[in-house]
């Protein structure tokens, strides 16, 4: 979709989105095409529509040969608008336009934006590209086809430099998110550890970061036995995917590690899930998709940072050789782990990936992102991702990034008292802490492997997938984490 800034509305247009403040004088009248003035008049006078935040009304205006879609969009009190609120307004109105089969959309804001031009262009572009995304490659005849070709933002200004920069940035964020959505939506019979690694390789080539992929033999030599145990039940071999981006050659510059959970399928292993519990488990590589997507965006934006992204990709299945409950695994770090539940597999793959990031890549800071626990979904539902951290300052940076991208996060308490729950009688740790505080104990398990490094753990079990469209998300994968991680890393430049 083409997205640009134009100075005035054409006389005949296909689709108009008129965004207005609540209870405010409409200044737009003089700019509107003459043929739309009379059908819009009583709306503009506020007799029928009050332009409260998120209110929307659409109609089709026919005059002579011309048929025009008109969408009235309420912005509420403009001083209360944030980037996230704006993004959702754009998403709502563009979704409506697409349903009206809009080809060329003209967005006319009836007020001066309280959000700066870069951010405005950014969120507008994100909304347009993400709301029109669909995963319909397996449908013989797609239900809705998006016919929207262009979006023109109408603003009477000569200085479009900042807006255009925002549009460019928003496109990078959105396209990286779409890449992640595509990977997560792809079923596990297609997206295997091997093909996930191939997809990451294509992304690396396209976006200009480097990649290294290790197979089982190398993993055995590196003693990544916790990771290997999880993948052993599958005929599909695991892969360790290492992506590197060096945007700051200064040796003293810190190295940030982004570690993503990469279970291309999670059957639960011998602690097998119910059919209902298993149905969405192709999305158990949502963390991996998030870090791959973020690498694409970070690299495209040429950020002055050094980042390594690690994905321990495998499939949790059952077979004569699969790992069992009661097994004691020696992780790469040397710490031993008693397996209480083979369905708590994510932390076993992540603990080796984290240790690898510190010992082999010399990472200074660790962020992991994972569809890790049903407990995170029970605690926070599908709106917020759960966070566990050992570093409050970094958490504040994450919260600022989250406020910009609208990917909500909530910090869980990581008090040492919870550590009791993952102590084992016969090994250093056990992989499950019992039925209570599951999202916290999963986090604390990982904390045992980050040594003294600043660390953020983001549990996206509830936010990686949507069953219903809302905001910028449609049905299926959200690509959560891509924009959040990108914005966080950008704030660390
Ligand atoms: N991949 C699941 C977590 C999950 C649940 C993701 C629901 C998305 C939606 C994870 O591997 C898992 O199975 N966790 C178990 C842990 C338990 C056995 C301690 C869970 O949450 O039930
Ligand atoms: Mg599991
Ligand atoms: Zn899992």
CATH class of the largest domain: Alpha Beta
The total number of structural domains is 2
Low-confidence stretches: none
Helix content: 25-40%
Tell me what the CATH architecture of the largest domain is.
3-Layer(aba) Sandwich
CATH H-level superfamily of the largest domain:
Zn peptidases
Mean pLDDT: 95
Strand content: 15-25%
Bound molecules: ligand BES, magnesium ion, zinc ion
* Alpha-carbon distance between the two ends: 30 Å
Strand order of the largest sheet: 7-8-10-9-13-17-14-15
Which topology of the largest domain does CATH recognise?
Aminopeptidase
Number of distinct beta strands? 19
Output the number of helix runs: 14
The class by helix and strand makeup works out as alpha/beta
How big is the Rg? 24 Å
Query: What is the 3D form?
Result: elongated
Largest sheet: 8 strands, mixed
């Amino acid at each position: 979709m083409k997205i640009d800034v134009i100075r005035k509305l054409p006389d005949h247009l296909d689709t108009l989105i008129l965004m207005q403040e609540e209870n405010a004088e409409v200044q737009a009248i003089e700019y509107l095409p003459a043929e739309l003035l009379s059908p819009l008049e009583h709306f503009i006078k506020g007799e029928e529509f009050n332009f409260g935040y998120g209110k929307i009304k659409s109609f089709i205006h026919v005059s002579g040969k011309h048929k025009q879609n008109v969408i009235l969009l309420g912005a509420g009190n403009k001083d209360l608008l944030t980037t996230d609120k704006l993004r959702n307004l754009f998403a709502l109105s563009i979704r409506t336009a697409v349903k009206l089969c809009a080809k060329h959309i003209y967005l006319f804001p009836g007020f001066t934006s309280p959000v700066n031009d870069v951010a405005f262009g950014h969120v507008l572009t994100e909304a347009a590209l993400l709301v029109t995304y669909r995963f319909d490659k397996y449908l013989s005849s797609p239900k809705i086809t998006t016919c929207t070709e262009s979006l023109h933002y109408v603003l009477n200004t000569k200085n479009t430099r900042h807006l255009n920069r925002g549009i460019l940035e928003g496109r990078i964020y959105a396209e990286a998110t779409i890449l992640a959505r595509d990977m997560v939506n792809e079923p596990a019979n297609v997206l295997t550890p091997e093909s996930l690694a191939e997809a990451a390789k294509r992304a690396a080539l396209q976006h200009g970061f480097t990649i290294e992929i290790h197979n089982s033999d190398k993993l055995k030599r590196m003693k990544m036995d916790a990771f290997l145990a999880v993948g052993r039940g599958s005929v599909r071999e695991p892969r360790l995917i290492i992506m590197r981006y060096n945007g700051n050659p200064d040796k003293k510059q810190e190295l940030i590690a982004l570690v993503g959970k990469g279970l291309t399928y999670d059957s639960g292993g011998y602690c097998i899930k119910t059919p209902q519990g298993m149905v969405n488990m192709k999305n158990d590589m949502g963390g991996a998709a998030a870090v791959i997507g973020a690498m694409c965006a970070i690299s495209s934006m040429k950020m002055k940072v050094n980042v390594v992204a690690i994905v321990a990709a495998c499939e949790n299945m059952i077979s004569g050789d699969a790992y069992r409950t009661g097994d004691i695994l020696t992780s790469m770090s040397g710490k031993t782990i008693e397996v209480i539940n083979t369905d708590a597999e994510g932390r076993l793959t992540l603990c080796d990936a984290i240790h690898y990031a510190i010992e082999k890549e010399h990472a200074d800071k660790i962020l992991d992102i994972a569809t890790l626990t049903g407990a995170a979904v029970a605690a926070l539902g599908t709106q917020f991702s759960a966070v566990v951290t050992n570093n409050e300052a970094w958490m504040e940076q994450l919260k600022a990034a989250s406020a910009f991208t609208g990917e909500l996060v909530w910090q869980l308490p990581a008090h040492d008292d919870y550590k009791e729950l993952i102590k084992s009688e016969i090994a250093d740790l056990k992989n499950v802490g019992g039925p209570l505080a599951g999202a916290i104990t999963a986090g604390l398990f990982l904390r045992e492997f980050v040594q003294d490094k600043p660390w953020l753990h983001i549990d996206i079990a509830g936010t990686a997938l949507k069953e219903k469209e809302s905001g910028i998300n449609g049905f299926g994968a959200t690509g959560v984490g891509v924009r959040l991680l990108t914005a966080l890393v950008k704030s660390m430049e």
